[in-house]
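Trying the structure run again after the queue cleared.
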Amino acid sequence: KDAEALYQKAYAAYADYNFNEAKSLTAQGMQEYKGYTTYQRFAFLNAMTKAYTESPEVFKTALQEVNDVATDKKILAATQNLMGRLEEGKMPVRNPRKIERTYTAADFEKPKIQDEPTEKNKTERLEIPKEYKMEAEAKHYVALILPRDLRSNIVKAIEDFNAKKFPTERLRVNRRNFSLNTDIILITSFVGKDDAKRYFGQFILAEKEFLKEINEVDYTNLIISERNLRKLTADRDALPYLDFYAYNYFGENVEKKEEKEEEEKPQPKKEVSLEQKVETKNLEPSVNFNPNLGESHNFVLVLPSKGVDVNYLWTALHHFDKKYRVKKEKLGGKRMLVVEGIGSKAEAMEYLKKVVQVDYVYANLKDVDYRNFVITDANLSILRSTQAVDNYVAFFKDNYLK
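Done. C-alpha cells:
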C-alpha cells in the first residue's frame, strides 16, 4: 500500500508536468523498494521524467538502467522502443508539450500531450509478431547474446572493430537486457539480409581475437531483421529463432540460383575426408572400447570449450534432420553435441557422410580443432566416463574407415 501510494503521488506529479517533483518521488521509491518488483515501475517513471528535464545522454542512461532490471514485458517493450529510437538519433524536444511522440512510451502510463495517436497506431508501434518471417530486404541487425556477468567492455571492442574494418559505415552498437541472466548486443543497421551477412562473415572470423573474453563463455551470435527482433526480445528465448535462422540464412535452400536458358549439368559432390588426427600423447592405454558394433549408433561432434557458438551448431544439426534429438553435453574440458538414435552402423555412416557436406554446419568450424564420428550407445557411455577422445578416434579409424 505504501509503495502504491507513493507511486500514485509521483505519477500525479508527472501527469501535471511537475517533472522535478515526480523525479524526486520516483528516486525515493527506487531507494526504498530496491529489490522489489515495484522498483521497475519507479525506475521507468523516473526515466520518463528525465526525457523532459535532462539531456538525451542522461535519459538514455536511465532507460538502460530500467532495461537491466525490467521483468514486466510492457515496461521492457516500452523501454526498448525508446532506446531504439534514441539509437536512430531522434532527440526529444525540451518543451514537454511539443515533445516527439516517440518519447512517450506508447501503451504505458503517461500524461496526455498534443497530437495523441490513435489506438491503432499505438498497437502497431509495439505489436509483437506471432511468428518469425523472412524479410530479406528489411532492416537487419547483427546480434550477440552472452551472459550478463561478462562485464568487460565488449561494446567498445566492437566499436573499435567497426572503426577499423568498416570506417565509412555508420554502424552503432548498444547493449540491452535479454533475459534474466543474459544481455544482447546489437550492431545496427544493415540494409537487408545480404548486407548483414557481408558484415557477419568478417565479424565471426575476427571475434575470437578482438573479443577474447567471449571465448570463455557460452554465447550466441546471429543476424536478425527488425521485425523478428521484436519477437525475439519479447519471447526472451533464442532457440526457436535459431532454428528459423539456420534454415533461412545459411540453409542449402536459401541461395536460389536464377533460372538460366540452358540447363546446367549437376555438380559432383565435394569430397570430404573423414580421417582425423590422433594425438598419441593423449592415448590412455587402459581404455578399451567395445568392438560390438551391432547396436544403435549416434553421431558425435566434440568441440573446444572456448570460441565456438555451440547454440548455433546445436540448431544447425537439429535443422539438418529434425527427426533426431540433439543434446549438448560437457566432456571434461570440452563440449560435445550428440545426435541420438540414428540407427545401424551403415545408417550412421551415411548420416556422417552427408552432414560433413553441409556448409551451414561446418563453415563455423573452419578454424576449430574438433572431432566428429559415429559411436554406439555402449561406447558413448565409455567415452563419457573416460573422456578418452583420442582413444575413440583411433578406434573409429580402425573399425569404421578401413
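The longest strand covers residues 182-191. Worth checking whether this holds up in the mutant runs.
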